[in-house]
Every structure is written in C-alpha cells, then in structure tokens.
Design brief:
The chain has four helices and five strands; from the N terminus they run E-H-E-H-E-H-E-E-H. With 107 residues, the protein is of the alpha/beta class.
Length: 107
C-alpha cells in the first residue's frame, strides 16, 4: 500500500513539507462514493510513486483539516504543492479519468 493516513499531528511533515506534490483524499466510512473511490485511489498511488504522494484524511476523525481546506462534499481530492492547494476534484471519478486529470495537473 502506498497511501498514508494523515492526521493533524503529521500533516505538516507529510503534506506541507513534502518534496513532491501531494493528493489528499478527504473521505468518511459512511460515504458510498468514498468507498468506491478508495480502491481507485490506492491503485493510482502505484502509478505515481515518486511523482505524487497519496494521503488520506478521515473526516470523522479530523475536523480541522477538512475545515482548513473548506471541504464541503466528499469524496474530495485536493492536490497540493508546497502545502498550497493547486487543484480539487469532488465526487467519484473513474480510474482512467482520474489518472488523466492527475497527469494534466502534474503537467
């Protein structure tokens, strides 16, 4: 598994100080589309090793991080670079479409 769980305590180290861009999956266990997105997110993490860090934030456990990014709907994937948001994807996206979107974001 190449995704990592992120909480407030390790957010700065894992996201803000990351040498490469980071994609954050804001999700919840009760969210059907989040459950569909989970395996897609995991599979894509294998395709972008060394180019994009994949992390997950459970909004049921972390209130501050979703608020910090103004997450209003889930699943919500936020791409950051140097700790700053550069793009956002809300809702379930099929694997190939998400891969194309990530590639376009990374340039």
């Amino acid at each position: 598994m190449t995704t990592k769980k992120v909480i407030s305590l390790n957010f700065q180290e894992e996201v803000e100080k990351s040498e490469i861009p980071v994609i954050i999956d804001f999700w919840a266990s009760w969210c059907g589309p989040c459950q569909m997105m989970g395996p897609v997110f995991e599979e894509l993490s294998e395709d972008f090793v060394g180019k994009l860090k994949f992390v997950k934030v459970n909004i049921e456990e972390e209130e501050n991080l979703p608020a910090q990014f103004e997450v209003s709907g889930i699943p919500c994937l936020i791409v950051t670079k140097d700790g700053k948001e550069i793009d956002r994807i809300v809702g379930f996206v099929p694997k190939e479409a998400l891969k194309e979107k990530i590639e376009s974001i990374l340039g």
